[in-house]
Amino acid sequence: MSKIKELFNIQYPIVQGGMIWCSGWRLASAVSNAGGLGLIGAGSMYPDVFQEHITKCKQATDKPFGVNLPLIYPQIDELIKIIVAEKIPIVFTSAGNPKKWTAFLQEKGIKVVHVVSNVKFAKKSEEAGVDAIVAEGFEAGGHNGFEENTTMTLIPQVRKAVNLPLLAAGGIATGSGMLAAMSLGADGVQIGSRFVATKESSAHDNFKNEIIKTQNGDTILAFKKLIPVRLIKNNFTVKVQELQNKGASREQLTELLGKGRAKKGMFEGDLQNGELEIGQISGIITKVEPVETVINSIIIEYNQKLLTLAKL
After folding, report:
1. Do 266 and 151 have their domain in common?
2. pLDDT digit string (tens) for 164-198?
3. What are 245-267's pLDDT values in tens digits?
4. Is the same domain home to 232 and 273?
5. Is residue 193 located within the same domain as residue 262?
6. Which of 191, 218, 239, 244 is the most buried (most CB within 10 A)?
7. Is residue 171 part of a domain?
8. Does 106 lie in the same domain as 32?
9. pLDDT at site 134
10. CATH number of residue 73's parent domain
11. How far apart are CA 243 and CA 223, in angstroms?
12. Could you give the CA distance from residue 161 to residue 192 in angstroms, rounded to a whole number?
């Protein structure tokens, strides 16, 4: 049995990304019901909204689900209290030091998984005592590491450096991609972009439709002076590039970014002025489908490709 399936008590070693504005209770419960591990994306939720999503997710599935928790979230203490009170079994942490909360959560019986973008932080996560690691290449949508490690180069290096169960993320949306990642040493995969373009995702329909129009080369890694983030190219990213080409300071870029830019794009559907966070793999996404259809197609393709490679 896959270490990831055993760790999370799930049917398939597939974890849904906890993406802000896209990963509400409908998506998380649908992924869990289809045999994967669904995650509620807490990074875009006030505590009362977070509580509501957990309550509804519990009503929608009797399977395990988890929470994605950015460690830089300003009201993290309140979210932690809710997680503990609701006995959420699995927490994925990101954007911060895993040492801060890992031991506390584990004392409450919660499994902790930390997301990293390089070998250095994978080792630090193992030292912090996390239960598993997500190694994410810079093909991924949303916030990325500064090193621009690709998934194909990152996974084998992290696998060599740590002994923990390992999830691969970034540029994976198919059974073929899943098989490739596991061939490189991953025990499972975390998939984001493909789940944004599903019927159960809380992303705006404008954003979903824009994803299926996206072709190779239509995303860009922006804000490298702040925190790199991969976005679909639009009027906003043109302004970002123009400002960066003029040698803009961090302060000027922060001012341009403003507040609520991701919500404007992904949740409210402003395709020109919002942040449209999606990965490079969006170029092969051609339909908005139900989660169950997506997961079934991934597993079928994985098994088919596995048989093909065995013949070779």
Report:
1. no
2. 999 999 999 999 999 999 999 999 999 999 999 99
3. 888 788 888 888 888 899 999 99
4. yes
5. no
6. 191
7. yes
8. yes
9. 98
10. 3.20.20.70
11. 10
12. 25
Q: How many CB atoms lie within 10 A of CB 236?
A: 23
Is residue 167 located within the same domain as residue 106?
A: yes
Whole-number Å distance between alpha carbons of 83 and 230 = 29
Number of H helices, E strands in the chain: 14, 11
Domain enclosing residue 146, as ranges: 3-202
Alpha helical stretches, state H, the chain: 3-8, 25-33, 47-60, 76-85, 102-107, 119-128, 151-161, 175-183, 193-196, 205-213, 235-245, 250-257, 261-262, 291-311
Flag whether 293 is in a domain: no
Tell me the pLDDT band of 146, cut-offs 50, 70 and 90: confident
Cβ atoms of 167 and 187 within 8 Å: the answer is yes
- pLDDT reading at 1 higher than 70: no
What is the number of structural domains in the chain?
2
For residues 197 and 290, what is the distance between their CA atoms, to the nearest angstrom? 9
Inside any domain, residue 161: yes
Sheet with 219-222, side-by-side order of all strands: 142-143, 229-232, 219-222
Tell me the whole-structure pTM to 2 decimals. Answer: 0.95
